[in-house]
Structures are given as structure tokens and as C-alpha cells.
Design a protein that fits this description.
By secondary structure, the protein is α/β, with parallel strands linked by helices. It folds into three domains: about 80 residues, OB fold (Dihydrolipoamide Acetyltransferase, E2P); about 140 residues, Rossmann fold (3-Layer(aba) Sandwich), CATH 3.40.50; about 90 residues, Probable gtpase engc, domain 3 (Ribonucleotide Reductase Protein R1, domain 1, Orthogonal Bundle). The chain contains ten helices and 13 strands. The strands form three sheets. Strands 10-9-8-11-13-12 form a six-stranded mixed beta sheet, sandwiched between helices. It has a five-stranded mixed beta barrel with strand order 1-2-3-5-4. Bound molecules: guanosine-5'-diphosphate, magnesium ion and zinc ion.
């Protein structure tokens, strides 16, 4: 590897799609500024802007290039002015968020992510409810979520913490890391390999940038000293993609608050509750006081913690209301109230039919 010339390791499927445009060059968006993009090509990195045609054809934010996008540009090196981005190749996965101000427009936060590392520290930041939220968003993106527990050097009850996480992180791998030692982050390497892109998400201060610096083998990204009490400071200010020596790409994000829950896969993140719900007596069971409720039964038996059901409800509600205006929210609430009445009616009818049968 010499200087900036890093092998971008474009995946085969994108190379094939790029072959449809022989007059253009394949690149990957690695950073985004106002109206301007940083693009990595086979040869170098350059600034690029969308062509007029791409801009005029774009009727929503998601039609613009985003970090992680594979794009076709008019040159692969040279520094005379910006290159022109003519097209965005088909996205394999997307992380979305609501665009600021408008209610329906969504922006692409990152594209073509294979694996998403949901980072949570084993000290102050440890919060199972937040993890559930991240998992729901990650499952919806098309990328494979992996839970990365950081700062294991600061944790005294690792086995208990791990057991708690494993009960929440259904279907996702769980890795334990520490940036303090060489073998503390080795587990990440399995996912960071040629042709693969990993996005790091999680609260600010949990050690995302530190882990990325370790993977890159140099301190490319700024990290801040921990303040008293173990809380880290926010340092990453924009999403950025880095090419890892030896292959693979990683995306650093400045925290996850920006990711909206409206694009979440709750059925996947709460597969346990979903499965139980399918066995409830009533298809519209609210798992409150209805008879024949498999979810309540599981809670009473201690199989599922009550807090998990509550978290599920809260996220579901949030997902439904997000993006709606005040009037629409009122309408939804009234609808909910009526379906609650239906639930009571169902329960009464059931009790009646039971008592009649006796
Ligand atoms: N004790 C300990 N501190 C860590 C570890 N990883 C990161 N830190 C510290 O946590 C702070 C925040 O790290 P940073 O990588 O900037 O977090 P980010 O906001 O998630 O990118 C920095 O002071 C790091 O030195 C770790 O494994 N153990
Ligand atoms: Mg950071
Ligand atoms: Zn139920």
C-alpha cells in the first residue's frame, strides 16, 4: 500500500453493474458535504457533484447519493474541478432517517452496508431497551446486525451482562471488545473483509471511533478523553467511510439519535413476542387482560420480562406516530381507543360463551 492509493475492493456485483456504462467510472461515496461528495475510485479519491440530470430527476432526498453508494462518475483521477456523478447503482441496503422539517421525505444515512455493529459500552451506556431499539432499526435496513459490547475492561459482571444481552439480541451475534488490548477487538476482523462494509452505530462515547482507528491501524479519526465518571465526549461529526488496509470498508457515524424508528423491523427484533402473539386466542389481542393470551402467560412464567413487552409497545406506538402531524396522531389515537373497546367486547363475548357452555 502506498500513500493514499488504497484498494477500494469493489464487490463483484457492482463491477458487473458498472460494466453497463463503459464510458463512465465506478466509484464509492465516502463522505458527504453540502452538495459535494468525496468519492473513492480504483485510483484515488476526488470530489464530485451530481449531474444536472441526476438533480432534476431527483424528487426526494433518497434519490441523491449517500455515503456508501456506488456511483458512476465521469473520471477516475485528476484534480481539475469536481467529477460528475451520473448515476447511483442499485442499493443493497439502506439506513434511512426522516429528513429535517418535512414529514414524509426520508434521507439515506448510509447505503450498501453488509453488517451493522450496534455498539454499546459495558459500563455507563449499557441499556437493554436502547439495544432493542437499535436492533429493530438495523433489522429493517437489510444489513445484518451484530451487537458489539465495548469497554469490557470496565465491566465487573460480564457473564450477567452477556446473558441479559443474549436474551434481547435474538438472531444476532454478540461480540465483547476492549480497545485497550490487541486481542480486545480481534473479533471484529471476521466481519471486516474484502468486499464487505460494516457500519458502526451506537451512542456517542461508547468507543466506535477508537475501534475503527484500531482496525485502520492508525488514528485517522479524532477521539476524546473520557471525562470523570467514564462518559466519553462526542467527537465524530459526520458520517464517513474508511477503506481498511487489507480489504473491507467501515462507516463511522456520529451517534444514532438521528435514525428514526419509523423504519424499524419490530417483528424481527421482537421475534419472541411476535411468535407468542400468534398463539393468543384473539388475533387482535393487546396482551393486557384478554383470556387465552400467550404473551401474558410467558410473562407470568418469567420467560419474557414485563419491561420487554412494554418496550415493544412503546416502540410500536412511536413507529406508528412518527412522521404524522398532530391531527393525524389524534385520529390514530381515536382509532386505538375503538380497537380497545373491540378488545373488551371480544373478551366479554368470550366469557359469555364460556359461561354458557358450562
Ligand atoms: N476503558 C476503555 N475506554 C475506551 C475504550 N474504547 C474507547 N475508550 C475511550 O472512550 C472515549 C470515547 O471513545 P470514542 O471512540 O471517541 O467514542 P465514539 O463517540 O463512540 O466514537 C475515549 O476517551 C476512548 O479512549 C475501551 O475499550 N476501554
Ligand atoms: Mg466517534
Ligand atoms: Zn395476547
Amino acid at each position: 500500500m502506498t500513500g493514499r492509493l488504497r484498494d477500494p475492493g469493489f464487490p463483484e456485483e457492482f463491477i458487473q453493474e458498472a460494466a453497463l456504462y463503459p464510458e463512465l467510472f465506478l466509484g464509492r461515496v465516502i463522505a458527504q458535504y453540502k452538495g459535494l461528495y468525496r468519492v473513492a475510485t480504483e485510483k484515488t479519491e476526488l470530489f464530485a457533484e451530481p449531474s444536472g440530470r441526476l438533480r432534476y430527476g431527483a424528487d426526494k432526498s433518497a434519490d441523491y447519493p449517500a455515503v456508501g453508494d456506488y456511483v458512476m462518475i465521469d473520471r477516475e483521477d485528476g484534480d481539475l474541478g469536481s467529477a460528475i456523478i451520473h448515476r447511483i447503482l442499485g442499493r443493497k441496503s439502506v439506513f434511512l432517517r426522516k429528513a429535517a422539517g418535512t414529514s414524509h421525505d426520508v434521507q439515506v444515512v448510509a447505503a450498501n452496508v453488509d453488517t451493522v455493529f450496534i455498539c454499546m459500552s459495558l459500563n455507563n451506556d449499557f441499556n437493554l431497551r436502547r439495544l432493542e431499539r437499535y436492533l429493530a432499526i438495523a433489522w429493517d435496513s437489510g444489513a445484518l446486525p451484530v451487537v458489539v459490547l465495548t469497554k469490557s475492561d470496565l465491566c465487573r459482571d460480564l457473564p450477567e451482562r452477556l446473558a441479559e444481552v443474549e436474551r434481547v439480541a435474538l438472531g444476532a451475534d454478540v461480540l465483547v471488545t476492549s480497545s485497550m488490548t490487541e486481542d480486545g477487538y480481534g473479533a471484529l476482523r471476521k466481519y471486516v473483509k474484502p468486499g464487505q462494509t460494516v457500519a458502526f452505530i451506537g451512542s456517542s462515547g461508547v468507543g466506535k471511533s477508537t475501534l475503527i482507528n484500531r482496525l485502520l491501524g492508525e488514528d485517522v479519526i479524532g477521539t476524546k478523553e473520557v471525562r470523570k465518571g467514564g462518559k466519553g465526549k462526542h467527537t465524530t461529526t459526520r458520517r464517513e467511510l474508511f477503506l481498511v488496509p487489507g480489504g473491507g470498508a467501515v462507516i463511522d457515524t456520529p451517534g444514532m439519535r438521528e435514525l428514526g424508528i419509523e423504519n424499524a423491523n419490530l417483528a424481527m427484533a421482537f421475534a419472541d413476542i411476535d411468535e407468542l402473539a400468534s398463539r393468543c386466542k384473539f388475533s387482535d389481542c393487546r396482551h393486557e387482560h384478554e383470556p387465552g393470551c400467550a404473551v401474558r402467560e410467558a410473562i407470568e412464567e418469567g420467560i419474557i420480562p414485563q419491561e420487554r413487552l412494554e418496550a415493544y409497545r412503546k416502540l410500536k406506538k412511536e413507529a406508528k406516530y412518527e412522521g404524522l402531524n398532530a391531527k393525524q396522531i389524534e385520529k390514530e389515537k381515536v382509532k386505538d381507543m375503538f380497537s380497545a373497546f373491540d378488545g373488551i367486547k371480544n373478551a366479554r363475548a368470550y366469557i359469555k360463551s364460556k359461561s354458557k357452555g358450562k
